[in-house]
């Protein structure tokens, strides 16, 4: 009886060694299933980034879900200081830039550079300034931009933001808004903003505040908020948003965030004594197209922009919002196919 059992065990051992020759019978309990070793994988579909060799699947998934992507230390300190110095020259009127718009705070009389002027909060449309526009053409910026727009890239909107110390009237805030409100070109998914911190930016000096996932929604109605301290020109905002979902983006000097034009975002007060600076550019695929905004929620911004343009340039003929954008657009990579 014992001999028969022993023989049976021996035969079983031989069979098991043939089935799994390297590790014996014990390995059968941990051998992977067919699902684990299948060579065919279903591709992941990404809706808001284009196929590229730069972004990791994790980064593409994060942008898909949240509408923004933060890249650390993308712009050098040396370049940022050059941008800072050029901004100072503009404020001191040492250089004149055609088409540049200088915006000032409604409640702050003390300028950073010129004591008898209101504080400069922003310079817009610096595409004719060679030094500042160099930011928009930086290879390390454009290689990321291409992941959102494709190879033919237009620089559409340029800004250097100079958030001043708050006067106590909370006018240094920027209402929560969607950038697409200002843009008469589509599709939105082929537009992206690159926004670079020119120093450490946190909640104390008014960092960016974003509502993750709102890029998946539609363009909302924008109006001037009802703020006691007043609102700066063209600082439109949305009213219906979930304040509990806000994320504050703490950034170091040189960090750059890329975000979708439908992402709801804004910034808080600057509670420090210094001016908080950032430089940014909105890019679009050259294959985008202009739209008419008559009869849409963008009519109010068109009226405001057109009035400013007509007054600044003495234009008497009728113009539309898209006309004011056509003159700003600059090709920075590839071919100008449409915009």
Can you lay out the helices and strands and say which pair or pack?
Blueprint: H1 2-19, H2 34-37, H3 57-66, E1 68-71, H4 77-91, E2 101-104, E3 120-124, H5 130-133, H6 139-149, E4 153-163, E5 174-177, E6 185-186, E7 191-197, E8 208-210, E9 247-249, E10 256-259, E11 265-267, E12 276-285, E13 289-290, H7 299-313, H8 321-326, E14 330-333
Antiparallel strand pairs: 1-10, 2-3, 3-4, 4-12, 4-14, 5-11, 6-13, 7-10, 7-12, 8-9, 8-11
Features:
8 helices, globular, alpha+beta, 8-stranded antiparallel beta sheet, 19% strand, 339 residues
What would you say this structure looks like, in words?
By secondary structure, the chain is an alpha+beta fold. Helix content is 24%, strand content 19%. It has eight helices and 14 strands. It has helices at residues 2-19, 34-37, 57-66, 77-91, 130-133, 139-149, 299-313, 321-326, and strands spanning 68-71, 101-104, 120-124, 153-163, 174-177, 185-186, 191-197, 208-210, 247-249, 256-259, 265-267, 276-285, 289-290, 330-333. The strands form three sheets. Strands 1, 2, 3, 4, 7, 10, 12 and 14 form an eight-stranded antiparallel β-sheet that branches. The longest helix has 18 residues, at 2-19. It is globular and about 55 Å long. The protein starts with a helix and ends in a 6-residue tail after the last strand.
């Amino acid at each position: 009886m014992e001999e028969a059992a022993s023989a049976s065990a021996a035969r079983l051992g031989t069979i098991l060694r043939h089935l799994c020759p390297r590790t014996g019978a014990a390995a059968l309990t941990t051998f992977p299933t067919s699902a684990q070793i299948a060579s065919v994988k279903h591709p992941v579909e990404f809706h808001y980034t284009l196929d590229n060799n730069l972004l990791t699947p994790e980064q593409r998934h994060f942008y898909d879900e949240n509408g923004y992507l933060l890249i650390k230390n993308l712009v050098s300190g040396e370049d940022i200081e050059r941008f800072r110095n050029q901004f100072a020259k503009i404020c001191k009127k040492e250089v004149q830039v055609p088409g540049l718009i200088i915006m000032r705070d409604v409640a702050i009389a003390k300028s950073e550079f010129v004591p008898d002027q209101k504080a400069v909060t922003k310079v817009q449309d610096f595409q004719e300034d060679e030094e500042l526009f160099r930011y928009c053409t930086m290879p390390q910026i454009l290689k990321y931009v291409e992941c959102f727009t494709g190879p033919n890239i237009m620089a559409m909107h340029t800004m250097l933001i100079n958030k001043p110390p708050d006067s106590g009237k909370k006018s240094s805030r920027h209402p929560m808004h969607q950038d697409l409100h200002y843009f008469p070109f589509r599709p939105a998914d082929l537009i992206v903003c690159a926004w670079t911190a020119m120093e450490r930016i946190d909640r104390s000096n008014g960092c960016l505040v974003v509502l993750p996932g709102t890029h998946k929604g539609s363009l909302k109605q924008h109006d001037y908020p009802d703020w006691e301290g007043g609102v700066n020109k063209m600082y439109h905002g949305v009213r219906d948003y979930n304040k509990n979902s806000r994320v504050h983006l703490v950034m170091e000097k040189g960090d750059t965030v890329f975000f979708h034009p439908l992402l709801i975002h804004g910034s808080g007060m600057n509670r420090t004594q210094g001016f908080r600076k950032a430089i940014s550019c909105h890019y679009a695929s050259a294959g985008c197209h202009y739209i008419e905004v008559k009869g849409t929620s963008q009519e109010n911004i068109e009226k405001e922009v057109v009035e400013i343009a007509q007054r600044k340039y003495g234009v008497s003929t009728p113009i539309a919002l898209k006309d004011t954008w056509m003159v700003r657009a600059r090709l920075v990579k590839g071919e100008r196919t449409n915009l």
